[in-house]
Amino acid sequence: MSYGMIATWRMACDGITKGTTDLANGGSAQTAIVAAIKMVEDYPFYKSVGYGGLPNEEGLVELDAAFMNGDNFDIGAVAGSRSVKNPIAVAEKLSHERFNSFLVGDGVAKYAIKEGFEIQNMLTERAKKTWENRLAEMRNSNLSPYDGHDTVGMVALDQNGSMACGTSSSGLFMKKEGRIGDSPLSGSGFYVDSEIGGATATGLGEDLMKGCLSYETVRLMGTGLQPQEAVNQAMQDFAKQLERRKGKCGAFSLVAMNNKGEWGVATNVEFSFAVATDQLAPTIYLAYPSEDGSYPKIEVASQEWLDAYQARITAPIQ
User: Fold this and answer.
1) 130 catalytic residue (yes or no)
2) pLDDT along the chain (318 residues), means of 10
3) Residue 175 sits in which domain range?
4) Catalytic residue among 20, 130, 151, 167
Protein backbone atom coordinates (compact mmCIF):
# COMPACT_ATOMS: atom_id res chain seq x y z
CA MET A 1 0.00 0.00 0.00
CA SER A 2 1.06 3.58 -0.63
CA TYR A 3 1.91 5.95 2.19
CA GLY A 4 3.04 9.54 2.39
CA MET A 5 2.94 12.98 3.97
CA ILE A 6 2.76 16.50 2.59
CA ALA A 7 3.18 19.66 4.63
CA THR A 8 3.38 23.42 4.40
CA TRP A 9 6.74 25.19 4.65
CA ARG A 10 10.31 24.01 4.88
CA MET A 11 10.03 23.82 8.68
CA ALA A 12 7.93 20.65 8.33
CA CYS A 13 10.57 18.54 6.58
CA ASP A 14 12.27 17.05 9.63
CA GLY A 15 8.88 16.10 11.03
CA ILE A 16 7.66 14.37 7.89
CA THR A 17 11.01 12.62 7.55
CA LYS A 18 10.39 10.99 10.92
CA GLY A 19 6.71 10.54 10.18
CA THR A 20 7.19 8.69 6.92
CA THR A 21 9.86 6.51 8.47
CA ASP A 22 7.21 5.43 10.97
CA LEU A 23 4.65 5.00 8.17
CA ALA A 24 7.09 2.78 6.26
CA ASN A 25 7.26 0.55 9.33
CA GLY A 26 3.49 0.24 9.55
CA GLY A 27 2.75 3.24 11.75
CA SER A 28 -0.57 5.07 11.67
CA ALA A 29 -1.29 8.36 9.93
CA GLN A 30 -2.76 9.71 13.15
CA THR A 31 0.39 9.04 15.17
CA ALA A 32 2.63 10.34 12.39
CA ILE A 33 0.81 13.67 12.21
CA VAL A 34 1.12 14.35 15.93
CA ALA A 35 4.78 13.32 16.14
CA ALA A 36 5.74 15.37 13.08
CA ILE A 37 3.97 18.55 14.19
CA LYS A 38 5.39 18.24 17.70
CA MET A 39 8.87 18.44 16.19
CA VAL A 40 7.96 21.76 14.58
CA GLU A 41 6.36 23.06 17.77
CA ASP A 42 9.46 22.20 19.82
CA TYR A 43 12.05 23.93 17.63
CA PRO A 44 12.50 27.47 19.00
CA PHE A 45 13.76 29.01 15.75
CA TYR A 46 10.47 28.43 13.91
CA LYS A 47 8.88 31.74 14.80
CA SER A 48 5.33 31.01 13.65
CA VAL A 49 4.66 27.73 15.50
CA GLY A 50 4.89 26.51 19.09
CA TYR A 51 7.75 27.36 21.43
CA GLY A 52 9.37 30.52 20.12
CA GLY A 53 6.25 31.53 18.20
CA LEU A 54 5.81 35.27 17.80
CA PRO A 55 3.48 36.98 20.29
CA ASN A 56 0.37 39.08 19.95
CA GLU A 57 0.25 42.84 20.46
CA GLU A 58 0.37 42.36 24.25
CA GLY A 59 3.53 40.26 24.09
CA LEU A 60 1.66 37.01 24.78
CA VAL A 61 2.10 33.86 22.71
CA GLU A 62 -1.33 32.48 21.80
CA LEU A 63 -1.29 29.20 19.89
CA ASP A 64 -3.90 27.47 17.74
CA ALA A 65 -3.88 23.82 16.63
CA ALA A 66 -6.20 21.21 15.21
CA PHE A 67 -6.27 17.50 14.42
CA MET A 68 -8.65 15.47 12.22
CA ASN A 69 -9.00 11.72 11.76
CA GLY A 70 -10.05 10.97 8.20
CA ASP A 71 -11.48 7.56 9.08
CA ASN A 72 -14.32 8.82 11.26
CA PHE A 73 -14.18 12.64 10.95
CA ASP A 74 -13.21 13.07 14.61
CA ILE A 75 -11.85 16.58 15.15
CA GLY A 76 -10.09 18.18 18.10
CA ALA A 77 -8.90 21.78 18.25
CA VAL A 78 -7.49 24.43 20.57
CA ALA A 79 -7.26 28.19 20.17
CA GLY A 80 -5.61 30.92 22.19
CA SER A 81 -3.51 28.41 24.14
CA ARG A 82 -0.81 30.19 26.16
CA SER A 83 1.01 27.57 28.20
CA VAL A 84 0.64 24.11 26.66
CA LYS A 85 3.94 22.78 25.30
CA ASN A 86 2.40 20.83 22.41
CA PRO A 87 -1.02 22.11 21.34
CA ILE A 88 -1.27 19.49 18.57
CA ALA A 89 -1.14 16.68 21.12
CA VAL A 90 -3.97 18.26 23.11
CA ALA A 91 -5.97 18.72 19.91
CA GLU A 92 -5.55 15.02 19.08
CA LYS A 93 -6.66 14.05 22.58
CA LEU A 94 -9.72 16.28 22.25
CA SER A 95 -10.64 14.53 19.00
CA HIS A 96 -11.62 11.49 21.09
CA GLU A 97 -14.11 13.52 23.17
CA ARG A 98 -17.79 13.20 22.26
CA PHE A 99 -18.42 16.71 23.60
CA ASN A 100 -16.17 19.73 24.24
CA SER A 101 -13.75 18.85 21.45
CA PHE A 102 -12.77 22.48 20.67
CA LEU A 103 -11.37 24.44 23.62
CA VAL A 104 -10.11 28.02 23.82
CA GLY A 105 -8.10 30.21 26.17
CA ASP A 106 -7.84 29.15 29.80
CA GLY A 107 -9.94 26.08 29.10
CA VAL A 108 -7.07 24.58 27.08
CA ALA A 109 -4.61 24.72 29.98
CA LYS A 110 -7.16 23.38 32.47
CA TYR A 111 -7.86 20.40 30.26
CA ALA A 112 -4.18 19.84 29.48
CA ILE A 113 -3.18 19.85 33.14
CA LYS A 114 -5.98 17.44 34.02
CA GLU A 115 -4.89 15.08 31.23
CA GLY A 116 -1.20 15.21 32.14
CA PHE A 117 0.16 17.31 29.27
CA GLU A 118 3.31 19.39 29.80
CA ILE A 119 2.93 23.08 30.61
CA GLN A 120 5.65 25.67 29.97
CA ASN A 121 6.26 29.32 29.18
CA MET A 122 6.07 29.49 25.38
CA LEU A 123 7.70 32.93 25.00
CA THR A 124 11.43 32.75 24.26
CA GLU A 125 13.84 35.65 24.74
CA ARG A 126 14.38 35.66 20.99
CA ALA A 127 10.66 36.03 20.27
CA LYS A 128 10.35 38.73 22.93
CA LYS A 129 13.18 40.70 21.34
CA THR A 130 11.54 40.42 17.90
CA TRP A 131 8.31 41.74 19.42
CA GLU A 132 10.13 44.65 21.08
CA ASN A 133 11.81 45.51 17.78
CA ARG A 134 8.46 45.55 15.99
CA LEU A 135 7.02 47.90 18.60
CA ALA A 136 9.93 50.27 18.03
CA GLU A 137 9.49 50.07 14.24
CA MET A 138 5.82 50.89 14.59
CA ARG A 139 6.61 53.94 16.71
CA ASN A 140 9.48 55.21 14.58
CA SER A 141 8.43 54.31 11.03
CA ASN A 142 4.67 53.94 11.18
CA LEU A 143 4.95 50.34 9.93
CA SER A 144 1.99 47.98 9.98
CA PRO A 145 2.13 45.73 13.04
CA TYR A 146 1.18 42.62 11.10
CA ASP A 147 3.99 40.53 9.67
CA GLY A 148 4.04 36.76 9.26
CA HIS A 149 1.39 34.06 9.57
CA ASP A 150 2.99 30.77 8.56
CA THR A 151 0.98 27.77 9.76
CA VAL A 152 2.42 24.29 9.67
CA GLY A 153 -0.22 22.01 8.19
CA MET A 154 0.20 18.33 7.34
CA VAL A 155 -1.72 15.53 5.65
CA ALA A 156 -0.72 11.88 6.11
CA LEU A 157 -1.68 8.55 4.49
CA ASP A 158 -0.67 5.23 6.01
CA GLN A 159 -0.37 1.74 4.53
CA ASN A 160 -3.81 0.75 5.82
CA GLY A 161 -5.44 3.54 3.83
CA SER A 162 -6.13 5.69 6.89
CA MET A 163 -5.58 9.44 6.63
CA ALA A 164 -5.20 12.27 9.12
CA CYS A 165 -4.28 15.93 9.09
CA GLY A 166 -3.18 18.57 11.58
CA THR A 167 -2.27 22.22 11.95
CA SER A 168 -0.38 24.33 14.45
CA SER A 169 0.33 28.06 14.50
CA SER A 170 1.03 31.09 16.64
CA GLY A 171 -1.07 33.01 14.13
CA LEU A 172 -0.60 36.51 12.88
CA PHE A 173 2.35 38.31 14.48
CA MET A 174 1.16 41.25 16.61
CA LYS A 175 -2.45 40.08 16.34
CA LYS A 176 -5.13 41.40 18.66
CA GLU A 177 -5.42 39.44 21.89
CA GLY A 178 -7.84 36.58 21.31
CA ARG A 179 -7.63 36.68 17.51
CA ILE A 180 -8.18 33.31 15.83
CA GLY A 181 -7.32 32.53 12.22
CA ASP A 182 -8.29 29.68 9.93
CA SER A 183 -5.86 27.09 11.32
CA PRO A 184 -8.11 25.48 13.96
CA LEU A 185 -11.29 25.81 11.87
CA SER A 186 -12.51 22.67 10.13
CA GLY A 187 -12.90 23.11 6.39
CA SER A 188 -10.80 26.27 6.34
CA GLY A 189 -7.41 25.39 7.77
CA PHE A 190 -7.76 21.64 7.28
CA TYR A 191 -9.98 18.78 6.19
CA VAL A 192 -9.46 15.07 5.51
CA ASP A 193 -11.56 12.10 4.42
CA SER A 194 -9.77 8.75 4.21
CA GLU A 195 -12.02 7.69 1.34
CA ILE A 196 -10.89 10.71 -0.72
CA GLY A 197 -7.90 12.69 0.60
CA GLY A 198 -6.94 15.69 2.67
CA ALA A 199 -5.86 19.31 2.39
CA THR A 200 -4.47 22.02 4.62
CA ALA A 201 -3.88 25.74 4.21
CA THR A 202 -1.55 28.52 5.26
CA GLY A 203 -1.73 32.26 4.68
CA LEU A 204 -3.94 35.11 5.81
CA GLY A 205 -6.53 33.39 7.97
CA GLU A 206 -9.07 36.18 7.74
CA ASP A 207 -9.33 35.56 3.99
CA LEU A 208 -8.82 31.80 3.98
CA MET A 209 -11.72 31.23 6.35
CA LYS A 210 -14.06 33.01 3.96
CA GLY A 211 -13.72 30.23 1.39
CA CYS A 212 -13.36 26.93 3.31
CA LEU A 213 -10.71 26.00 0.77
CA SER A 214 -9.46 22.84 2.48
CA TYR A 215 -12.92 21.30 2.41
CA GLU A 216 -13.50 22.50 -1.15
CA THR A 217 -10.26 20.85 -2.26
CA VAL A 218 -11.30 17.52 -0.73
CA ARG A 219 -14.77 17.85 -2.25
CA LEU A 220 -13.28 18.39 -5.68
CA MET A 221 -10.98 15.41 -5.29
CA GLY A 222 -14.11 13.43 -4.45
CA THR A 223 -15.54 14.28 -7.88
CA GLY A 224 -12.55 12.58 -9.50
CA LEU A 225 -10.10 15.44 -9.86
CA GLN A 226 -6.42 14.78 -9.23
CA PRO A 227 -5.00 16.63 -6.18
CA GLN A 228 -3.20 19.21 -8.33
CA GLU A 229 -6.34 19.93 -10.33
CA ALA A 230 -8.52 20.11 -7.23
CA VAL A 231 -6.33 22.35 -5.10
CA ASN A 232 -5.60 24.72 -7.95
CA GLN A 233 -9.27 25.02 -8.91
CA ALA A 234 -10.37 25.57 -5.31
CA MET A 235 -7.84 28.34 -4.73
CA GLN A 236 -8.10 30.08 -8.09
CA ASP A 237 -11.90 30.12 -8.17
CA PHE A 238 -12.20 31.61 -4.72
CA ALA A 239 -9.33 34.05 -5.13
CA LYS A 240 -11.07 35.46 -8.20
CA GLN A 241 -14.34 35.79 -6.29
CA LEU A 242 -12.64 37.53 -3.40
CA GLU A 243 -10.82 39.96 -5.66
CA ARG A 244 -14.06 40.75 -7.51
CA ARG A 245 -16.15 41.26 -4.38
CA LYS A 246 -13.62 42.85 -2.02
CA GLY A 247 -10.99 44.17 -4.41
CA LYS A 248 -8.11 42.23 -2.87
CA CYS A 249 -7.04 38.75 -1.79
CA GLY A 250 -4.55 37.84 0.92
CA ALA A 251 -1.81 35.22 0.73
CA PHE A 252 -3.15 31.72 0.05
CA SER A 253 -1.16 28.47 -0.07
CA LEU A 254 -2.63 24.98 0.09
CA VAL A 255 -1.28 21.43 -0.08
CA ALA A 256 -3.30 18.29 -0.75
CA MET A 257 -2.84 14.52 -0.92
CA ASN A 258 -5.35 11.89 -2.01
CA ASN A 259 -5.79 8.37 -0.70
CA LYS A 260 -3.38 7.04 -3.33
CA GLY A 261 -0.50 9.22 -2.14
CA GLU A 262 -0.76 11.61 -5.10
CA TRP A 263 -0.32 15.27 -4.18
CA GLY A 264 -0.81 18.83 -5.34
CA VAL A 265 -0.07 22.42 -4.35
CA ALA A 266 -1.62 25.81 -5.06
CA THR A 267 -0.38 29.25 -4.07
CA ASN A 268 -0.57 32.94 -4.92
CA VAL A 269 2.81 33.72 -3.28
CA GLU A 270 6.26 32.14 -3.26
CA PHE A 271 5.87 29.17 -0.97
CA SER A 272 7.92 26.25 0.35
CA PHE A 273 6.54 22.84 1.18
CA ALA A 274 7.74 19.31 1.91
CA VAL A 275 6.65 15.90 0.63
CA ALA A 276 7.65 12.30 1.31
CA THR A 277 6.02 9.10 0.02
CA ASP A 278 6.89 5.47 -0.57
CA GLN A 279 8.04 6.63 -4.02
CA LEU A 280 9.76 9.89 -2.98
CA ALA A 281 12.39 10.61 -0.34
CA PRO A 282 11.64 13.62 1.89
CA THR A 283 11.99 16.61 -0.42
CA ILE A 284 11.65 20.36 0.05
CA TYR A 285 10.11 22.23 -2.86
CA LEU A 286 9.54 25.85 -3.79
CA ALA A 287 6.30 26.82 -5.53
CA TYR A 288 5.80 30.02 -7.49
CA PRO A 289 2.37 31.31 -8.54
CA SER A 290 1.48 31.44 -12.19
CA GLU A 291 0.40 34.71 -13.76
CA ASP A 292 -2.41 33.17 -15.79
CA GLY A 293 -4.06 31.03 -13.10
CA SER A 294 -2.52 27.77 -14.31
CA TYR A 295 -0.55 25.37 -12.13
CA PRO A 296 2.27 26.88 -10.05
CA LYS A 297 5.87 26.42 -11.05
CA ILE A 298 7.41 23.87 -8.69
CA GLU A 299 11.11 23.17 -8.23
CA VAL A 300 13.29 21.39 -5.71
CA ALA A 301 14.84 23.81 -3.23
CA SER A 302 18.54 24.27 -3.90
CA GLN A 303 21.18 23.72 -1.25
CA GLU A 304 21.96 27.42 -1.49
CA TRP A 305 18.33 28.25 -0.67
CA LEU A 306 18.30 25.77 2.22
CA ASP A 307 21.54 27.15 3.67
CA ALA A 308 20.27 30.72 3.40
CA TYR A 309 17.01 29.72 5.09
CA GLN A 310 18.79 28.12 8.04
CA ALA A 311 21.13 31.09 8.42
CA ARG A 312 18.20 33.50 8.34
CA ILE A 313 16.04 31.80 10.96
CA THR A 314 18.95 31.30 13.40
CA ALA A 315 20.62 34.70 12.93
CA PRO A 316 21.02 36.72 16.15
CA ILE A 317 18.26 39.24 16.86
CA GLN A 318 19.74 42.66 17.40
Assistant:
1) no
2) 95 97 98 98 96 95 98 98 98 98 98 98 96 87 67 98 98 94 97 98 95 97 98 96 93 97 97 97 97 91 97 94
3) 4-314
4) 151
